[in-house]
Design goal:
The protein is of the alpha+beta class. The chain has two helices and eight strands; from the N terminus they run E-H-E-E-E-E-H-E-E-E. The chain has an eight-stranded mixed β-sheet, covered by helices on one side.
Length: about 140
């Protein structure tokens, strides 16, 4: 079954932000830096200390997040929060991606990555969606 949660994108302060949220909300925080991920060899040196994925999980809530890692795109208000569909069934995720792609701008076609299948799009209403299937990147 696919879960739906907010995904926050930070300007280099993802860890500090989620530690703050944890101090307010409680829960368990897990983070992974670029340098500790399979993506380390494909990312420039200046991004190695950034958070590639984090999750804060508590009673009744879950927040996923990362630092902004897209050097060819500009981080700005409006594209720093999105809806994250995370699931283990590739076919279910592919079907949702296809449906939400109608009239959308697909920024990342759904394809295999080191952490499972991943894709992203901005739907026809301008809402950013990210999709992932596979084992938990940070559980």
């Amino acid at each position: 079954m696919t879960s739906l949660m907010p995904y926050l994108l930070f300007d280099g302060n993802c860890r500090q932000a989620l530690e703050f949220y944890q101090s307010c909300l409680g829960g368990e925080l897990k983070t992974m830096q670029v340098k500790d991920s399979p993506a380390k060899d494909s990312m420039p040196e200046h991004l190695q200390e950034k958070i590639v994925h984090a999750r804060l999980k508590g009673a009744g809530f879950e927040i996923a997040a990362s630092d902004w890692l897209a050097p060819n795109q500009t981080r700005r208000s409006g594209n720093t929060i999105c809806i994250f569909l995370d699931g283990t069934e590739a076919q279910e995720l592919a079907a949702l991606f296809e449906k939400l792609s109608e009239g959308a701008v697909v920024t990342d076609p759904l394809k295999p990555q080191f952490f499972g299948s991943y894709g992203a799009l901005n739907d026809r209403f301008g809402v950013r969606w990210m999709f992932r299937s596979g084992p938990p990147a940070v559980s």
